[in-house]
Q: What sequence folds into this?
């Protein structure tokens, strides 16, 4: 006896066998039970979701001699004849190869005769969108007012190609993509029935690859089982057969991209090519991986959307912390554009390498989001104390200290900020030094060290208007923000802005600090060095001004 493919062998024979379309099954069963059966139905949805299967079940149910709760009994003569294809009352037509006006005329002639057995003549027209315009027009009158014993069931994957005149004459049912969980459960059930030894992780990946189609899932399982017949079908086996890539590789690639290691990305791609992985599928899967990272970043309950194990979710959360959402959206955009190009490309590998270079070298791309990423990178370097132009370091006077000297970080950053606010290099006269109580100095140093990070994290108006500011002491638990620009000062001095700044400092650093604002005066020196009382002893030989209290 010849082998029957799994998707044919396990085609649903009753409504109870249909998976993932409960809303349609319940409606059709209620119509059969109540006798409120329509004359024309339109089943639309993606491939492999059960449109033709439900149409055949419905054809048996309306003709069944003893239906059970709206489902065919499968035992009466009518059910057996329809199931075997020998009944003249159920006619299945493929509109892809029978799409002319003459084919519709044949149907119009046939509907004049009542059924030889059962109560209805059912015409199932598959891929109905393939009918020509003339064929649709020829079908309209019969579709609108068929004999009482005729039912039309039209099935299509492209409902947008159906004329509105046909749509208005049918009851429309939209078939949903079957969820990964439902597909996995069904595959597990059939694997046990077929005595196929398979890992659940392998079935889950097959279900994911099927993209909501039960037929595709069964076909993929059939293919994988045939290759490893008599063996346990493992997750690695499935990856090898389908030319897919493990999610661990995606994680390594993504980390290489975030670290701007172009060579590592190219080498990893080389390994995938040597292993014979399908590059188009790799691009699609990598886009989905980054999409999952974006969901983890932007949604509170990502676990309700992402169907994966706890270990995979934890790994995703770790990778999602490596970049912000704007950068991640640029990554997705670059690879989405690649997926459209790679479909018809002869040199897929070259296009993928080019995409990785774009991700790791944003300076080579001249568009808005790549420029934003480059600016963010520069800001991060500045916050970490990394000089963007190392030659500028030579301009710092040895008197101002260097790495490792007392107060060097504050002295240099204060002078640099002073030069920027005053519009030129520092004067030849040494900066004034002021002693502060230890507590005030600690608050000042902490805020100055974190100032760039604070502004960036607050974002919005604060990020844009506080860029050219410095912080100076203004008394016990009080700091003053000095603005060089009048417009920014008018924005920053608002109580709501100050309140937001104070709340952030308290929540983040546990410090109750009051902030004031002022506008920089013309020609004012802002390179003052603040030291503690203890440092006075070490610098007593220098010109120092002591102020007990600064208001």
A:
């Amino acid at each position: 006896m010849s082998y029957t493919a799994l998707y044919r062998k396990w085609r649903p024979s009753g409504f109870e066998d249909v998976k993932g379309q409960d809303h349609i099954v319940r409606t059709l069963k209620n119509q059969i039970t109540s006798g409120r059966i329509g004359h024309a139905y339109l089943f639309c949805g993606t491939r492999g979701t059960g449109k033709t299967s439900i149409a055949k079940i419905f054809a048996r149910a309306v003709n069944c001699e003893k239906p059970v709760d709206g489902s065919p009994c499968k035992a009466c003569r009518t059910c057996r004849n329809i199931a075997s294809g020998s009944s003249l009352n159920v006619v299945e037509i493929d509109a892809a190869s029978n799409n002319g006006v003459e084919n519709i005329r044949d149907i119009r002639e046939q509907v004049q005769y009542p059924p030889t057995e059962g109560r209805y003549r059912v015409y199932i027209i598959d891929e109905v969108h393939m009918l020509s315009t003339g064929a649709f027009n020829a079908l309209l009158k019969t579709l609108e007012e068929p004999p009482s014993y005729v039912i039309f069931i039209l099935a299509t994957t492209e409902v947008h190609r159906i004329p509105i005149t046909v749509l208005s004459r049918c009851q429309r049912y939209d078939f949903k993509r079957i969820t990964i969980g439902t597909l996995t459960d069904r595959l597990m059930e059939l694997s046990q029935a077929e005595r196929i030894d398979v890992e659940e992780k392998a079935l889950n990946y097959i279900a994911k690859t099927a993209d909501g189609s039960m037929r595709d899932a069964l076909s993929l399982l059939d293919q994988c089982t045939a290759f490893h017949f008599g063996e346990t079908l493992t997750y690695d086996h499935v990856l090898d057969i389908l030319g897919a890539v493990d999610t661990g590789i995606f994680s390594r690639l993504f980390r290489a991209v975030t670290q701007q290691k172009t060579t590592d990305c190219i080498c990893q791609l080389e390994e995938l090519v040597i292993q014979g992985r399908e590059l188009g599928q790799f691009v699609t899967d990598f886009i989905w991986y980054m999409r999952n990272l974006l969901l983890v970043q932007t949604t509170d309950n990502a676990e309700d959307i992402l169907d994966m194990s706890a270990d995979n979710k934890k790994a995703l959360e770790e990778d999602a912390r490596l970049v912000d959402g704007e950068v991640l959206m640029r990554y997705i955009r670059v690879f989405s554009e690649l997926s459209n190009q790679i479909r018809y490309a002869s040199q897929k590998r070259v296009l993928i390498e080019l995409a990785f270079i774009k991700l790791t070298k944003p300076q080579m791309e001249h568009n808005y989001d790549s420029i934003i990423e480059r600016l963010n990178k520069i800001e991060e370097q500045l916050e970490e104390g990394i000089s963007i132009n190392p030659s500028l370091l030579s301009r710092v006077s040895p008197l101002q200290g260097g790495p490792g000297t007392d107060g060097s970080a504050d002295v240099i950053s204060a002078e640099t900020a002073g030069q920027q606010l005053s519009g030129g290099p520092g004067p030849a006269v040494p900066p004034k030094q002021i002693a502060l109580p230890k507590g005030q100095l600690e608050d000042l140093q902490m805020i100055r060290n974190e100032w760039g990070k604070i502004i960036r994290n607050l974002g919005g108006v604060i990020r844009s208007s506080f860029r050219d500011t410095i912080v100076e002491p203004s008394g016990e638990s009080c700091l003053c923000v000095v603005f060089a620009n009048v417009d920014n000062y008018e924005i920053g001095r608002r109580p709501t802005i100050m309140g937001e700044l104070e709340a952030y400092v308290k929540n983040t650093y546990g410090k109750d600090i009051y902030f004031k604002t002022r506008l920089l005066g013309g020609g004012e020196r802002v390179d003052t060095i603040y030291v503690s009382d203890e440092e006075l002893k070490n610098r007593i030989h220098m010109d120092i001004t002591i102020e007990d209290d600064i208001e």
Residues 387-418 have pLDDT under 50 and may be disordered. The chain has 24 helices and eleven strands. The longest strand covers residues 150-156.
